[in-house]
Design brief:
About 30% of the residues lie in helices and about 25% in strands. A six-stranded antiparallel beta sheet has the order 1-2-3-4-5-6, with no helix packed on it. Helix 1 packs antiparallel against helix 2. About 10% of the residues are buried. The structure holds zinc ion (ZN).
């Protein structure tokens, strides 16, 4: 898991932590200087602890009760489906077309990082 965090501003100007497509709001600063953050989804109790500089994750507590806001994930899925479908459609077209098409498909598919 990628443990690098991103600090963002909420609409209200509060600091939020962005980690793995989930946003966390600041809960409190612990006695040891670490910061506790809670998922911004109201029904979710997943929380994280960052170091005092808010640069790295110290601890991840609990599981999210919802899907992550993973746009990238969704886009990858759509792209993958498109690649599959196009390859299947190629059966009825002429060989040169299929090859060209598949080459384009493979280029398109390979640019997507998994
Ligand atoms: Zn959550």
């Amino acid at each position: 898991m990628e443990n690098k965090i991103q600090l963002i501003q909420s609409k209200k100007g509060k600091q939020l932590v962005l980690l793995n497509f989930n946003k966390y709001r600041h809960v409190r600063t612990r006695k040891d200087g670490m910061h506790k953050w809670l998922c911004t989804v109201k029904t979710c109790y997943a929380s994280i602890v960052t170091d005092g500089h808010k640069t790295s994750i110290v601890n991840i507590i609990g599981e999210h009760t919802h899907e992550s806001n993973s746009l990238v994930k969704i886009e990858r899925q759509i792209l993958r489906e498109n690649c599959k479908r196009q390859a299947e459609d190629g059966i009825s077209t002429r060989p040169i077309k299929i090859i060209r098409k598949e080459l384009m498909n493979s280029v398109m598919c390979s640019v997507v990082p998994y």
